[in-house]
Amino acid sequence: MVYKSQIVNDIGVYELLIPRFINEALLANDRVKYFFSLLQMAKEHADGQHDAGYLNSDERRACGVDDDRFDKVIQESIKTDSEHYRIPQLRSILDHILQCINDMMNPLDRVKIQLDENDGTTTAPVRNTEHYNYYARLEALKKQIYSLENDIITNRYLDIITSGKREIGDSFHLLVMDLHKELNVLQSKVSQESIDGASVYGLIEIDKSCVRAFMNGVNQTAKLKFEHVGLGTTATRSGEDLIIQNDIGTTDAHVLVLRVNKLKATLTYTDIHIQRLLFFHSLLKTYNVRWNDTKYRKSNIKDADMYHLSIGVYEATNDKDLYEYLSFLGSRIVFLIDWNRARKTLRNFIKNTNCIEILKWAADRNYGHRAFLKLGGEQLLYGAIRQIGDPSIHYGQRLDEVIGKERTIEFLRFVFKTCYENLIGGGSESLVRDRIRAELASYFRTAEQDVLQKTADHASLLVEIAEAVRNSILTIGEDYETIARNSKRARTWESKADVMVKEVCTSAKKPNVPRAFEQIIMRADDAADHLEEAAFLLTLLQKYNDLGAIYDLLNEISDNTYRDCMEYFKALENAKVVHRGSPHVDIQDFLEAIDKTIAIEHDVDEINRRVEEAVVNKVEDFKQFHIFSETTRNIERATDCIMKAAVILRDYTLGKLSMSLP
Question: Counting runs of H as helices and runs of E as strands, what totals does the chain give?
Fold first, then answer.
């Protein structure tokens, strides 16, 4: 890739590009020979030679030429007179020939590594004789070709382009032949070998251990890119440094180059995405890599994009430490491939900062994100959401807005892990989709279950407050310290209950949590307020020997209220397990608990009337009259609130069951 090659050159490691430029030049040789043949066959066809050859589209593509307009050139070429030919696409053909020649001269012009008999690092020296002054020859030939109008060319011009006979003068074809010979010499001099998949040349023995360590890491995680291209590695020696380059993927300006000098490894990394660059930094945090200030640069290529450049230095303590770092570094590169695509995909479901956290989590555990993308990415997740069919999800909503940030992170981690395990283990894609859908459904149920649990926890505090009231009534006139202590406890429990009410009301505003829970807990909290008030009023009572009947009635009403709170709490606990397919006994227990709360409320109403009658007939002191009256009234109001909460809970639970029926 030209742009990536330029970036490598910009950061001063041109040596790594020598094999690439030679290969590109040899490919250009294949292309230019196609165009020479095209012109020669076009001339023969126009001359009426019946045995003139033809070039088909397969031959064109095999030479690396994609433009199918050239397929008709031979058949449509004609001779206009004894010296002139009309050849379609003539100007374009000549432009391609000139470009191919420039590509072939590129490595000869730029590669100037001198012969070194000691380590064998060499390329062919550029020859300066007149015969091998390729640029001068090219310019001289170009001056001999005048303007070509209307795709008309003379026989003489065709010879200047295609002739292979030196005795009649120089030609583009002869220039290409000489360049090809020069390239073959250059290629033979740059001897290449492979070390564990890395293409290397000019290494000394000590370099090879470093390359093996680096490639050990690359090969450990390379499978996680699946069919994606990338991770090609090149290594060479430049002066006192071993230089290793990994091409990462196909993204322009995405380059990783490593210089190793003794125990010092200097990493140069460029990226157009600053977030991915910082992510890469985070992957290496286990090692003490010193990063310089990231710079924002522009390549020397005209109209090239800006890119970020960062340099990190790691100084190993010994060879073993160096090899371990090189291996770890190599193993992290795969997690940069398609990273930005994965981040953008996750951004549809959770905030960007959390997206990066998930990608880091997956990389640290060697799951990666490519398996997730390969199995569908966002479509995999949207498919699971559609199949759940939860009406609380609205178009355009992020998943974290529905089930919460923590659950979304946990779910997406499950998705990444499941996708990895499936592709590595060879499981079926349908099984992955089913597992993800089932997991997501559990998170939707969990959101509701959490609110239900908080409502049940609130009910347990309600039971504690009711018990405190009952115990206080049992000790009236005997243990005023216990009554005061019970009132203080009731006040503490009521405060805790208020906190739970706020949490449930906040959760109930989320789309996936039924608003019914807000109504349920607010009714129950009204009961907690009334019972806490009753506990306080009891601290104001004094002993009266002649009020035994009233005390008995107070004991009866407080005992019923305690049982009422217990039945309400039991109903909430049963509601946790009531769903479509629940055993009949679970539904029966739930309904019986609801029924008892309603029945007890009616009993308390009746007892309250009897208390009021007794108080009116027996209590003469106004203060005591007020205390008895307000205490029983608060207790009665509490049972009324509990009944209302229980009815809302019943209607919601039965409604949910009816909606789930086929």
Answer: 23, 12
- pLDDT for the residue numbered 397: 75
Of the candidates 505, 488, 496, the one whose C-alpha atom is nearest the C-alpha of residue 460 is 496
**SS3 letters across 248-269:** CCCCCCCEEEEEEECCEEEEEE
Given a contact cutoff of 8 angstroms between Cβ atoms, the answer to whether 334 and 280 are in contact is no
Outline where DSSP puts E strands in 399-457: none
Q: What is the pLDDT of residue 353?
A: 93
Please report the pLDDT score of residue 130 as a whole number.
Answer: 43
pLDDT at residue 443 in the model: 76
Range list of H helices, 576-621 = 584-618
pLDDT for 120 equals 42
Output the pLDDT for position 367: 97
* Per-residue model confidence (pLDDT) at position 57: 79
CB 192 within 8 A of CB 120: no
Tokens linked to 536:
């306080």
At position 616, the amino acid (one-letter code) is V
Residue at 202: amino acid letter: G
Separation between Cα atoms, residue 430 and residue 122, nearest integer Å: 55
Q: Which CATH architecture has domain 448-659?
A: Up-down Bundle (1.20)
Q: Which residues of the chain have pLDDT under 50?
A: 1-2, 112-131, 299-304, 660-662
Rounded to 5°, angle at Cα 574 from 569 and 575: 95
Domain residue extents for the chain: 14-189, 193-337, 349-427, 448-659
- Write the single-letter amino acid at 193: E
The DSSP secondary structure of 495-510, one letter per residue, reads HHHHHHHHHHHHHHTS
- Closest to 557 measured CA to CA, from 472, 647, 446: 472
Buried b / exposed e over 384-405, threshold 16 CB at 10 Å, is: bbeeeebebbeeeebbbbbbbe
Structure tokens at 72: 């008709």
* CA gap 620, 52 in Å, rounded: 132
Q: Which helix (H) or strand (E) holds 309?
A: strand 306-315
Residue type, 347: R
pLDDT at 21: 76
Question: Residue type for 110, please?
Answer: R
Closest to 265 (Cα-Cα) out of 230, 336, 194, 217: 217
How far apart (Å, rounded) are the C-alpha atoms in residues 343 and 259?
A: 30
Which residue's structure tokens are 């807005």?
401
- Cβ distance 120 to 204 under 8 Å? no
Runs of H (alpha helix) within 190-263: 205-221
pLDDT, residue 553, reads 86
Query: Residue 505 has which token pair?
Result: 């009301």
Q: Which residues lie across from 312 on neighbouring strands?
A: 267, 291
Bridge partners of residue 78, in order along the sequence: 86
- Which tokens in the block code for residue 50? 């019946």
Domain 193-337 has CATH 3.30.1460: yes
Question: How is 150-186 classified by DSSP, letter by letter?
Answer: TTEEEHHHHHHHH---GGG---HHHHHHHHHHHHHHH
* Backbone phi, psi, residue 245, to 5°: -125, 140
